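User: Just a sanity check before I run the rest of the batch. Below are the structure tokens for the first item. I only need the designed sequence back.
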């Protein structure tokens, strides 16, 4: 099979096609003939040498796929050859075939194109866990999301609105702000043109938001806390602005804030299986009903993965980029 990997970290140009043996599914696994693979920020960070795969995971990038089951390993009872699935994987997505844990697969409805199916798992698993499980979001609350037109941001908008949240996002241009409003955000702040802390205060009547989904970290954390209402929750899922933050712990104490965060890829297979069950019960019916669909940016052939990474790093994309295997 053809797969896309790299020998040494570097820019998008280090991504090269390789010919590798087709893997065989082990216990509890399925082999998926990949239709599409999602491109995500962690893939870029891995390519740069700053996010190595967890022990036992494929070194090939790619954390989400869609396609058809090509072979079933022992111990798998609920999937069969030919089934259309999408899956969260720990690596190996940038290839014509990819192994997936059967418990991490979700069935692709007949009216959902495979390119859109590949754009769902990573963002849906991430947003569901961090907004609703770690962040304890509840109907009627207000959520602030940075990177509102990213894959995560667009999913947070759509899922938030479907579950009764008011959603404020920050974006880097008037055009992206307008697109975020079209996607469903209640308010979009151009963080390059105004202070998002002041804008959140204005929008909320100085009451603040209940939850911040933070992908920036660094000096954003202290500013995010200024946006939070008492009892507010701050959830960090990436550190694009730096891993270190300086905050006033007295403010955390007096306003009873909760600060948490998570990374999904290194979590155990058991955890991901439980998360998949939660999503299948609570969010996947919205996909099956056609009410939840990913925002799609561009699709590239597998052998143009370098161009897909370049587009992501340029920051011009809105929604999800996928590779066609």
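Assistant: Here's the designed sequence for the first item:
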């Amino acid at each position: 099979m053809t797969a896309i990997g790299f020998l040494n970290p570097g820019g998008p140009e280090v991504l090269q096609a390789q010919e590798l043996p087709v893997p065989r599914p082990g216990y509890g696994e399925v082999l998926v003939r990949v239709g599409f693979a999602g491109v995500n920020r962690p893939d870029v960070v891995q390519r740069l040498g700053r996010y190595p795969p967890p022990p036992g995971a494929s070194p090939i990038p790619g954390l989400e796929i869609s396609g058809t089951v090509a072979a079933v390993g022992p111990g798998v009872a609920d999937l069969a050859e030919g089934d259309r699935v999408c899956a969260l994987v720990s690596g190996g997505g940038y290839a014509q075939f990819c192994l997936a844990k059967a418990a991490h697969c979700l069935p692709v409805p007949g009216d959902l194109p495979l390119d859109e199916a590949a754009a769902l798992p990573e963002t849906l698993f991430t947003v569901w866990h961090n907004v609703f499980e770690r962040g304890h979001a509840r109907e009627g609350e207000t959520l602030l999301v940075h990177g509102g037109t990213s894959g995560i941001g667009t999913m947070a908008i759509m899922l938030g609105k479907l579950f009764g949240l008011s959603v404020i996002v920050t974006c880097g241009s008037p055009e992206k702000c307008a697109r975020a409003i079209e996607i469903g955000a209640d308010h979009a702040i151009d963080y390059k043109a105004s202070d998002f802390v002041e804008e959140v205060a204005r929008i909320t009547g100085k009451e603040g938001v209940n939850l911040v989904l933070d992908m920036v970290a660094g000096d954003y954390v202290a500013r995010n806390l200024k946006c939070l209402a008492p009892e507010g929750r701050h959830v960090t899922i990436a550190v694009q602005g730096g891993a270190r933050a300086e905050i006033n712990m007295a403010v955390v104490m007096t306003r009873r804030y909760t600060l948490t965060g998570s990374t999904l890829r290194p979590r155990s297979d058991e955890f991901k299986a439980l998360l998949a069950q939660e999503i299948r019960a609570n969010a996947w019916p919205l996909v099956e009903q056609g009410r939840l669909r990913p925002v799609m940016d561009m699709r590239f052939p597998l052998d143009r993965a370098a161009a897909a990474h370049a587009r992501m790093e340029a920051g011009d994309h809105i929604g999800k980029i996928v590779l066609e295997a």
